[in-house]
Every structure is written in C-alpha cells, then in structure tokens.
Design goal:
Blueprint (H helix, E strand, L loop, with lengths): L2 H15 L4 H4 L2 E7 L6 H20 L9 E7 L4 H13 L5 E4 L3 H11 L4 E4 L5 H4 L6 E3 L4 H15 L4 E7 L2 H15 L4 E8 L7 H9 L4 E5 L3 H13 L5 E4 L6 H7 L7 E4 L8 H14 L5 H20 L5 H10 L2 E3 L2 E3 L11 E8 L2 E9 L2
Parallel strand pairs: 1-2, 1-3, 3-4, 4-5, 6-7, 6-8, 8-9
Antiparallel strand pairs: 10-13, 11-12, 13-14
C-alpha cells in the first residue's frame, strides 16, 4: 500500500469511527541544524536546498504516519561547537523536534551528539570522524562515509596509483585531521613513498605562507592538504599557487565542493580529491535526484546536498515504517534492520549506525567544478 493509499484509509477509518483527524493534521517536526553563517555557510546553503526538496517530495506523496506532513525547522550552528549545541538544545526543548539532523563538521557534531545521546533520534548527514559513531549511542546514525571509510580508498589511490616518492602533509588540528593523518601514516608505511614533512595549524590561522615555505623546502613530490572549511581551503590553495605549487597536489576526500573551488579563483585547478558523489554520468535514481534539484533551483546538487537529502528521506521513511515518530528504540531498530533506497543505491546501517556508500569517486578539480577521474566499487 502506498503512503497516499494509507492516508486515505486512515481518513476513512476515522470518519467511520467518528474520531477527530488531529493526528493526521499535526506535522512531524524534524530539526535541521546547519551552518547558515560562518566559515562553512556554503554547506548550509547546499544542505538546505536538498532538505527542502526531500520534504517537498515526501509531503507531495502523502506524508508519513497516515497522512501527516513533515516540517523542517532550521537552526544555525554558525560553524562553532557552542552554537551547534545551542541550536540542538533549542530544537529539542522549544522547537518540538521529533528528530535532529545535524552534522557538517566533526568537532561540532561530537558536541551536538553529546546533547542528543539517549534523548532523541540524531542523524548526522556529513561529518566524517570515526569518533562520532564510536560513542555507542543507539539512536545516532551517520549517512556519509566515516573518515576511515573514505581514507582507505583515497590514500591507496594517492600512494599506489599516483605513486609519489615523497609527500608533505598539512591540515587543521581537529579530530578529522588527526584521524586522516594516522590513516595516512599507516598507508605510507605500506607503500614506497616517504612522508617528509607534517604541518598542523590552528583554526584561526589565515596566513599559511611560512608553513608552505617550510613544506616546499622539503621538496616533496606531492602536497596533501586536509581541511574541511571551504573559505580556508580556497585561501590555502591561493597561497600554495603563489609559491609555485607542487608537482602533485591532493586535498582531503569529501571536502571539496564549489563553495571552496569558486572562491579559490582557479588556484585549485588540477587538485586531486575524492567523494561518494559525482553528477557526471549519473543514471537512474541519481539522475532523477539531480534533475529534480536542477529543475527546482536551476543548479546541480553536490555531495553535501545529497547526504542531507538522504538523511531527511531515511528519517521520514523509518518513522513511517516503524509507525511512530517518538519510539526511538523502534525507529532505530527499523533503520538497522532495513535497506534504504537512495539516489546512490541501497544504504544499510551497521550496529554503530554507520552507512557505507556503494561507490567512491576520484575527482580532479577542473574549472569551477570537479571531473571524474576514476570510480571504485566499495560495496
């Protein structure tokens, strides 16, 4: 039975029994915590477009739970842990949220998940740090690959396909960076490459000239930059280009969107990266999603939009299948026990609440976007 048919059946049953239809009329509120301002505001803009598209599609198909519409309520995490926590608390205590979708930056998501743990269903769409889902929170789920999941494929490609003899590494001193650096060190040990220099910096750094100068002095064949903040990413690559660049250049997987490429003004041209999404060559459900997004907004979606879209769909469909918006044990079990159809294909969640993307794509920055370099089936 379709959602629309179930809604009609519920309405008929209610009329026959003389019961009020308040339940079907009350919306199911889903709290959306995104960076609408601050250094990652580009992510917030991309995520909101796809979230609104998902809600529109769900509601047009009859809603959930016998015809109830879903309502997305947004709060701005402003790119800081304290603002992320405040946004989550507001949605939980005053916003009437039945679920929270929050997670762009790993450090912020870790802070947010400490508030939601054992209190409300929390789906993290984009933040990658393994530590987020290592906590053992039964109602916490992750749509994007973990840092390790992306890094295993990406680092293997950098070291065994591109085959640099020497590599220099630089990144912000965050949980995301620490996990990637440890993974990369292990990958280097199993390759013919040598890690000749490592440079970490604080989030307040804006001038990277001295760091880049030090890295260039080591004469590495490859520079590998790890940073998830679009505005800072653009600044780093502008300063790298000002000093002549490096023979091979790479940037952390899952973090390169147009919100970094465009302000870099050509400085990221040729940089190798990777992600779980690329619009180029899309077919089937992915093409349907891309076309719907393009029709609504006159722009193609990116990975951030995709994972937020999938998060809204999984939350709504799991509630509908479980028959409840507030029995989180049952909703969580429903998420784990089922396979969910998304634009990428089938998504399944493990006991830690992690999903795994069926494909991983190696990209090269080309013009104002990324171009497909190679595809890996990681199912």
């Amino acid at each position: 039975m379709t959602i629309r048919m179930k809604a009609a059946a519920a309405a008929l049953a209610s009329a026959l029994l003389g019961a009020p239809m308040a339940y079907a009329q009350d919306p199911v509120i889903i709290g959306m915590v995104l960076p609408m301002t601050g250094g990652t505001a580009g992510y917030g803009k991309d995520g909101k477009m796809s979230a609104d598209l998902a809600a529109e599609q769900i509601n047009a198909a009859g809603g959930i739970l016998g015809g109830r519409q879903i309502q997305l309520v947004y709060e701005d995490e402003k790119g800081t842990p304290q603002d992320g926590v405040a946004a989550v608390q507001k949605l939980m205590t005053r916003g009437g949220a039945k679920a929270i979708i929050a997670g762009m930056n790993s450090s912020i998501t870790l802070a947010e998940s400490a508030i939601t743990k054992n209190r409300i269903l929390h789906v993290n769409p984009a933040a990658q740090a393994d530590a987020i889902t290592e906590q053992g929170s039964p109602w916490l789920f992750q749509i994007n690959n973990t840092t390790t999941g992306n890094a295993n494929t990406f680092h293997s490609y950098l070291l065994h396909t591109m085959k640099p003899k020497t590599v220099a590494f630089m990144g912000e001193n965050t949980e995301f960076n620490k996990a990637l650096l440890e993974n990369f060190k292990h990958a280097v040990e199993e390759s013919d490459a040598e890690l000749v220099e490592i440079a970490n910096y604080d989030g307040t750094t804006t001038d990277f000239t001295s760091i880049i100068t030090r890295l260039k002095a080591a004469s590495p064949e490859m520079i590998y930059v790890v940073d998830a903040y679009p505005a800072r990413t653009a600044q780093i690559w502008k300063q790298i280009r000002q000093q002549g660049g490096f023979p091979m250049e790479a940037h952390s997987a899952g973090t390169v969107q147009q919100s970094a490429i465009l302000p870099a003004e050509g400085a990221m041209e040729g940089v190798v990266t990777g992600d779980i999404f690329i619009a180029e060559g899309a077919t089937g459900a992915m093409a349907d999603y891309i076309n719907a997004h393009r029709e609504k907004y006159n722009v193609e979606p990116n990975k951030v939009g995709l994972v937020v879209y999938e998060a809204v769909k999984v939350v709504a469909e799991a509630m509908d299948k479980a028959g409840t918006d507030s029995d989180y044990d049952l909703i969580a079990k429903t998420i784990r026990d089922n396979v969910w159809q998304t634009p990428r294909g089938e998504l399944a969640f493990d006991e830690k609440g992690r999903s795994k993307a069926p494909f991983f794509y190696i990209h090269t920055v080309k013009g104002d976007n990324v171009a497909l370099r190679e595809t890996f089936d990681v199912k």
